[in-house]
Amino acid sequence: YPDAVLNISREPASVFQLKRRWETKPSMLDLTPDFQRELVWSSRKKCELIESILMGIPLPAFYVREQDNGVYVVVDGKQRLTTLFDYIDGKFKLEGLNILKGINTKHFKELTTLQQNKIEDYSLQLNVIKAPTSDRVIFDLFDRVNRGGVTLNNQEMRNALYQGCATRLLNALAKSDAFIAATENAAKPKHMKDRYLVLRFVAFYLWNEHL
Fold it and tell me: What global pTM score does this model have?
């Protein structure tokens, strides 16, 4: 697109600072914009992230969009940030670590004070997307930065790139009691399988109506 403008500034932020932003009422860190997928990381990936931080391994940069009200909308990094916040909040314990084996089975509060501080004080590199960057450029950026890691399936990619009334409708229908009952709760939101089924139904319904 010839009129594309991408305005990005680099800012460091500690895990503690971002968690405080997230917990502020109203929250100043949005982890669940419409184009984001559900949580898909395995327990192993979560634990290895914590291990990497304790080992001092640098993490890839995070991308956030700064809104007019100062809220940071996470474009890339939801899985990592959610993992960090959940571990600090005691929602899972470490397991299966092959290098720092001594901290296997430990929750955050069971780590030494030094280890806890190392996680909370860990500096993350934020690429902050500012105005006048358009939504279309941001969706394309989301596509590009998510080609590594856990690959997006077709429905996740559609959801990321084509935002609007249709994506909101699919999300609402997938959460409706009628859809959950019809599928006997077998269509799970992980990897947006539920929205994919709704999309197929709507597509066939509209096709049949226009025969």
Answer: 0.64
